[in-house]
Amino acid sequence: MLDHIDLADPRFFSTPEHLRVFRYLRDHDPVHWNPDGTEPGFWSVTTYEDCLAVQKDGATFSSAGTNTLGQQRWTGDEGAGRMLTHTDGARHTELRQVVNRAFTPRAIAKLEPYLRSIVRQALEEALEHGECDFVDTVALLPVASIAALLGVPQQDWTLLLRLTTAAFGSADQDVQTSPSARASAARAHAQLLLYCQDLMQQRRRRPADDLVTRLVEAQDSGLLGEEDAMLFFDLLLLGGNETTRHGAVGALLAFMEAPEQWRLLRGDRSLLPAAVAEVLRYVSPSRHVLRRAERDVELRGRLIRAGQDVAVWHSSANRDGRVFQDPDTFDITRAHNPHLALGSGPHYCLGAALAGMELQLFLDELCDLVGSATLLEPPARLASTVINGFKGMRVRLLPA
Ligand code: HEM
User: Fold this and answer.
1) Does ligand 1 lie within 6 Å of residue 315's CB atom?
2) Signal sequence span per UniProt (predicted)?
3) What CATH number should be reported for the domain holding residue 196?
């Protein structure tokens, strides 16, 4: 069954076959050694219980080197030991405290009315045209959300959308290998960092109630160097962008494939929070995170050596039948849904409440405005081990 299977090969995820392989791994080889292939060898954990255990044990399974599969594993990750996602223990806590307050449900609630207006406008435009690429339709929502928290002025949001798409839209590993795409990504990335530097200078002169001001204060108190602050800006844009965008696209696809669920939600909006949780579980926009063993450790009888990498496939955990009834069914009335789509343990998604709010108001507006949605062609999926997403999804939308 596992001959020729390489979990680090983005092409592995281009068909639903990967779901069958993960089921096999959960049942027969839950701590699996993926030999050298696309990438140097690494371990994979696939059951709910093991994914949770590894993510919670930051002392044994470190984030400090890197936190996903990919080239940075062997060429070195510029964020290693510096970025929030790439630190452990006390330093991680210290960094998280710099930005924590901006992400509480109370802090983000004030963004709701204007985020709702962005979704409404995007859907109305799509309805006017009748047909659209839904990946573009929802693109502004996540960027606008995080841009507002950062304190990026509204007139620059479309610029930021363009730069983030060029800089980070490289989640497709087919695209990443093209030298011209790499060069334009590097250029866009450099522009983003300069943009951040400029905004920090403005906030130093005139502080405001936003995240960029927090980053300036953290530099003044000696917590962050200037480059660290810029990396932080980068991380917040990256973390909040593609995941949420593809979550929204995946949500529409799931509802198109299960129209009875769509009818249920339109008939009873009290199901919205459960629908968001089910979208996160079923779509799992983030496929895995990576940890590095700090010491030799035994897991289910397999010896993981110090220094070896462990991929935590929470996308597989979210389909584990030991925890979720009928795991491959999209069911917004699911009573028990402790999904791991937003991670768990110390690195649990900082933007969890924001992502939840974005997806909830997106679904709410979709219910209000859209009567039916039809796929015009099979969606083009991103070739990525990291993001479960789409290059494009052409749909026809009809008004409610
Ligand atoms: C559907 C949307 C989202 C998904 C599926 C998602 C998923 C995740 C996952 C799985 C992690 C754990 C990473 C790890 O353990 O190494 C994480 C962490 C993180 N997420 Fe999200 N995320 C989403 C939305 C957001 C948003 C809107 C933001 C806003 C900025 C955000 C910012 C972050 C940050 C900064 C971290 C690192 C936290 C830490 O290392 O302490 N995410 N996210």
Assistant:
1) no
2) none
3) 1.10.630.10
